[in-house]
Amino acid sequence: MPEEKYPLAVESVGGDTYIVMSRGHHDLREFMVEVIKDYGDWNLGGAQHVWIKTTPAKGGWSYNIVDQATRGAWPATYCWEYGDGYEQWREVTP
């Protein structure tokens, strides 16, 4: 079955730590350029392709990184505060 296509739409999903992601596996550089547009002062890095399972949580949702074979898992491009290589993105202007 072919992978579904998701538009690149970055959203904040972190609580105590700054975390952003977009549904779908996107080009990592394109993803980070979009991240910088809205979250450039958050020191985000470590962009990677992961699989997420969304579960209900008090007041919203919890996004958990899981194995691709996990029932209900969906692809995401994901990065977090002070993730690997965050320094390189501090000087990027969209």
TrEMBL record:
Superkingdom of source: Bacteria
Species of provenance: Pseudomonas spelaei
Protein name as catalogued: Uncharacterized protein
